[in-house]
Structures are given as structure tokens and as C-alpha cells.
Amino acid sequence: MRLIVLLEAALISALQLCGQDAREIVRKSVELDQANWLRMQDYTWVARNTERHLDSKGNTKSVETEAWETLVLSGQPHRRIIERDGKPLPPDEQRKQQEKLDKAVAKLERETPDQKQRRLAELQKARAKDREFLREIPDLYDFRLEGDAKVDGHDAWVIVATPKPDYRPKLRDAKPLMKIRGKVWIDKAEYQWVRLEAETTDTISFGLFLARLSPGAKLVFEQTRVNDEVWLPKREYTSGSGRLGLVKKIAMQQELTWGNYRKFQVESKIVSEK
């Protein structure tokens, strides 16, 4: 009997420790997000977006795809569309995209030191606001360490996140998180998010046009390690239904992938078309 009591006590202590460790793991991973964001500015990449619009029975009505290259110039991302619906852009649209990029480059070259400082300060302000939102995650959820797993060759903790029923978000942007539960795979070596799965548990309303996202909407987000120095986005998949305004119903699936990451300073250059 004494042995059973000791085992029960040990199990309860282990579960309590797991709960505490899970929160600290998540908190540490959130803090490391800033390092990834800073290193990402040294890269250029190609992203592809696919949207599938569905009818009431879940059948595909239409598919739209688009691909673009992103370059970060002086701390600011610039997007150049390179493909639409599986086909390269027509020559005239390619020229327009290049002209748009050329104008952005020329504007940066004309910046005075004061103008550059103000622009970068605005970017840092927006980034700080995003980080406030992220930093509230460890406080908003109850975390439970579910176990271990190997994802893309990385040993990871598997942590389940459930909103605290009595928690009051400090930030307005964090309020929808109270209606989202999730599971996250965090790399044991570097505390990076390898995979995230989330699902809405109630209707979420947002925006000026009263867009509404129904319960059961799903999100999958994955990251990958690049050049043995940084973790960057790999794939994001969302599916769900909702309503735009008071009448229009929508149901769709969206997949966004990132790839072809290259160090901008070393492997890339901007070529203007004349």
C-alpha cells in the first residue's frame, strides 16, 4: 500500500512539473522569435499561395494561385509577383512589377539619414506591437506536456494549449485566442516551433465589415531550419467557413508555402529592366 501511495505522489508531482515546464518552454520559444525575425531580413524567398473556394457541400468551386518573391531592403519587405494561376506573368506585367521594385529602391536611395531613422522606428514600433501579442500567449493558455515526437528529424516536445476560462486578455488583438485551442511541437535543441495545429472553438468576429469565422476552422503552421542558423516559415494551411457582412457565406481552404531561401547579400542582386 505504501508503495502505491508513493507512486501516486510521484505521478502527481511529475504531472505538476510537466505543467510548469510546458509554460516555460513556450515562454522561451516566444522570446526567441525575435532572433528569427532579425535574421530573416538577410534572406530573399519565394512564396506560393493557393486558395480553394468551396460550395455548401465542400466541393471546390474555384482555385486561385499566386507566387511572389520577397526581398527585404533596408529592413522593409518588398514583394514582386512572378506567377499567377500556375503561369509566369505576361511580359507587360513583369515589367510593371520590376518598375514597382525599381521605384522602391530609388526611394530608399534618396532617403536622408533622418528619414531612414523615422521609417525604421515605425517598423520597430509595429514589430514591438506584434511581440506584445505573442508575449501574452504564455499567460493566456493552460499548457500540458503531452509527450515527445520527432518532426522532420528534430526531437520535439508536444504541448497542448487550452485557453484559461477566467483569463482576461490585456490586448484587444489577443481576445480571439480565447476561442482557439491548439497543439505545438517545439524543438528540444533550440526551443523553436516546428509545427502548430489550432482550431476555433467558437465564432470569432473581426474587422469593420463584421467578418465572422465559424467554430471548427483549422490552422496548421510549420517552420524549417535554414542554413543551420535560423528557423523560417515553411507552410501554413487554413480551412474553415464563415460569413462576410450579414449575407455572404464563405468556405475556403488556403495553403501558403515558403521556399528557395537565399542569403540576399551573397546570392542575390537587384537587376533593373531598362
Task: Using brief descriptors, characterize the structure shown.
13-stranded antiparallel beta sheet, disordered C terminus, alpha+beta, 274 residues, single chain, 13 strands, globular, 5 helices
Could you characterize the architecture of this molecule?
The chain has helices spanning 2-40, 91-110, 113-135, 137-140, 264-267; strands spanning 43-54, 60-73, 76-84, 87-88, 141-151, 154-163, 180-187, 193-200, 204-206, 211-213, 218-226, 230-244, 248-263. With 274 residues, it is α+β, with helices and mostly antiparallel strands. Strands 1, 2, 3, 4, 5, 6, 7, 8, 9, 10, 11, 12 and 13 form a 13-stranded antiparallel beta sheet that branches. The N and C termini lie far apart (86 Å). The model is unreliable at 1-20 and 266-274 (pLDDT under 50).
Concise summary:
This protein has 274 residues and is of the alpha+beta class.
Largest sheet: 13 strands, antiparallel
Rg, Å, rounded: 22 Å
What is the CA–CA distance across the termini? 86 Å
Mean pLDDT: 85
The portion of residues forming beta strands comes to 35-45%
Count of alpha and pi helical runs = 5
Uncertain stretches: 1-20, 266-274
Anisotropy-based shape:
globular
Number of strands: 13
Helix content: 25-40%
Outline the fold blueprint.
Layout: H1 2-40, E1 43-54, E2 60-73, E3 76-84, E4 87-88, H2 91-110, H3 113-135, H4 137-140, E5 141-151, E6 154-163, E7 180-187, E8 193-200, E9 204-206, E10 211-213, E11 218-226, E12 230-244, E13 248-263, H5 264-267
Antiparallel strand pairs: 1-2, 1-13, 2-3, 3-4, 5-6, 6-7, 7-8, 8-11, 9-10, 10-12, 11-12, 12-13
